[in-house]
Amino acid sequence: MKDMLKKVLIMFIGIVCLFYNTSAQTTELSKADNPYMITTKVPQRPNGQQDVIQLTAPKLEVVRVGFIGLGMRGPGAVKRFTHIPGTEIKALCDIRPERVEVAQNILKEAKLPQAAAYSDSEDAWKALCERDDIDLVYIATDWKHHVPMALYAMEQGKHVAVEVPGAMTLEDIWALIDMSEKTRQHCMMLENCVYDYFELTTLNMAQQGLFGEIMHVEGSYIHNLEEFWTAYWNNWRMQYNKEHRGDIYPTHGMGPACQLLDIHRGDKMNYLVSMDTKAVGGPAMYKKIHGEEAKDFQNGDHTMTMIRTEQGKTIHIQHDVVSPRPYSRMYQLTGTKGFANKYPKEGYAFPSTEATKDVAPDLEDLNAHTFVPEAIKDTLMKKYQHPIQKIWAEKAKQVGGHGGMDFIMDARLVYCLQNGLPLDMDVYDLAEWSCLPALTALSIEHNSAPVAIPDFTRGSWNKVKGYKHAMKAE
Ligand SMILES: NC(=O)c1ccc[n+]([C@@H]2O[C@H](COP(=O)([O-])OP(=O)(O)OC[C@H]3O[C@@H](n4cnc5c(N)ncnc54)[C@H](O)[C@@H]3O)[C@@H](O)[C@H]2O)c1
């Protein structure tokens, strides 16, 4: 009996070791610091390579662009670029020729020359990247193609703008960082939600100190994708949800939150914990689409993540794309002197009359437990309109793209390239906002254990103090 027990014990230890070794391929426990913290490997920066904090590149009088990926999202970007002076659309690529035609028609309508077309083969995009008359490669494909395309484009000496999330694995994130550092090419993720009106205005208010010290921020992607699932090329999005646990679409919540907290501009994210519900809505949707049961569907209906920063701030991020809920990116901030909230109701709250004393006629109405009255909110939003809104908001409303924020994003990208300025979002923003798919999965798979968030700047997170949009000197 004793022998038998011993054998069972040895077998059990063997199984545990086997499991531990398998997961140790990508993770290792840093026992010295915290026996419960999962850490991931930070590749050493190659000798001679430097960070790309505040990266600038030679001014481009005309920004010549090639687009890859012209499905639901891509053609809107082509259209927006037809409205941005100082740009030329040189090339268009989609594996499906009919999608390239859609984009060519946009150029025709705008009375612009037809662009060179790349199509029909899986690798046709490579020839687009190799052209010597292109400065910027703009990528709006499914998630799995983002990284090989971005890496190749930078290798060919092109700046890259890539849709969200920029990358889905840590290996890919580090590869993009290394390539941007090595080639000194910009690698910007096209996170449009940081340019929405409420977010930009609130960021400006925060930077002017209206909310005091910002302690906690929230963001989410809560969007019932029911009407979209079947429209994605080759069903890539449902497939990704089927195969992956964790918050796989975090950047719309993360972007605004991280800009408010000056992440890698004076603060850095230290660790996260994540938890999900079981998967019910996802597999039901899969069955509706495919007519068969989804075996082993991974993505939980609702995933929530909490992050703590070096400066003692917290971030709460949520993901839910299958429940019958109203759309919400949450966007909420709590500061020592004020509060802002976007969904479901936009509003500001302040404990005293300080913040509004020179704009509010009826100061008595202010109350720490309610939002300020609508009229005061509107006056505040006018007073604190962000400087970049002052330049681009009017045109953005005409051109459109999620109410105008997409246009401001593209216009800012072009403006910074034309003026040789650092872009609004660098490759470390891409890394920080896109690391959640990998890191939340690790946490969830280990009973919500804390997972260290790497310092993607490899030591440079405190070089710049405070987030800023670069502007040329007048
Ligand atoms: N920022 C936002 O608000 C927002 C909104 C929607 C989508 N997106 C992002 O945009 C991207 C595209 O999403 P979508 O909804 O347009 O998906 P989609 O499936 O409609 O489009 C993807 C396109 O990529 C093309 N493609 C696939 N493989 C290719 C290859 N080898 N070469 C060239 N083209 C190839 C497909 O033919 C398809 O047209 C995703 O990253 C998504 O997350 C962002």
Quickly list its features.
Dihydrodipicolinate Reductase, domain 2, six-stranded parallel sheet, alpha/beta, Rossmann fold, 474 residues, 15 helices, binds nicotinamide-adenine-dinucleotide, single chain, 16% strand
Could you say what the CATH architecture of the largest domain is?
2-Layer Sandwich
Using the CA coordinates, give the radius of gyration: 23 Å
Total discrete domains: 2
Looking at the structure, the CATH topology of the largest domain is Dihydrodipicolinate Reductase, domain 2
What ligand molecules are bound, each kind once? nicotinamide-adenine-dinucleotide
Number of helices: 15
Shape: globular
Query: How many individual β-strands?
Result: 16
Strand order of the largest sheet: 15-14-13-9-12-11-10-16
Strand content: 15-25%
Major sheet: 8 strands, mixed
Low-confidence residue ranges: 4-26
Supply the CATH class of the largest domain: Alpha Beta
Class derived from helix and strand content: alpha/beta
Mean pLDDT: 92
Q: How far is the first residue's CA from the last residue's CA?
A: 86 Å
CATH level 4 superfamily of the largest domain: Dihydrodipicolinate Reductase, domain 2
The percentage helix is 25-40%
Q: How would you sum up this structure in a few lines?
A:
This protein has 474 residues and is α/β, with parallel strands linked by helices.
Describe this entry's structure for a reader.
- The protein is an alpha/beta fold and 474 residues long.
- The chain folds into two domains: 63-190, 3-Layer(aba) Sandwich (Rossmann fold), CATH 3.40.50; 194-386 and 427-452, Dihydrodipicolinate Reductase, domain 2 (2-Layer Sandwich), CATH 3.30.360.10.
- 36% of the residues lie in helices and 16% in strands.
- The protein has helices at residues 2-23, 74-81, 97-109, 124-130, 143-155, 170-183, 197-207, 236-243, 251-260, 281-290, 374-383, 387-399, 405-418, 427-434, 436-445; strands spanning 27-29, 38-40, 63-68, 87-94, 116-119, 136-139, 159-162, 187-189, 214-222, 269-276, 303-309, 314-320, 332-335, 339-341, 347-349, 451-452.
- The protein has an eight-stranded mixed sheet. It has a six-stranded parallel sheet with strand order 5-4-3-6-7-8, with helices on both faces.
- A hairpin with a 3-residue loop joins strand 13 (332-335) and strand 14 (339-341).
- Helix 12 packs across helix 13.
- The longest helix has 22 residues, at 2-23.
- The N and C termini lie far apart (86 Å).
- 45% of the residues are buried.
- The model is unreliable at 4-26 (pLDDT under 50).
- The protein binds nicotinamide-adenine-dinucleotide.
- Residues 68-74, 93-96, 99, 122, 125, 140-143, 145, 163-164, 190, 192, 232-233 line the site of nicotinamide-adenine-dinucleotide (NAD).
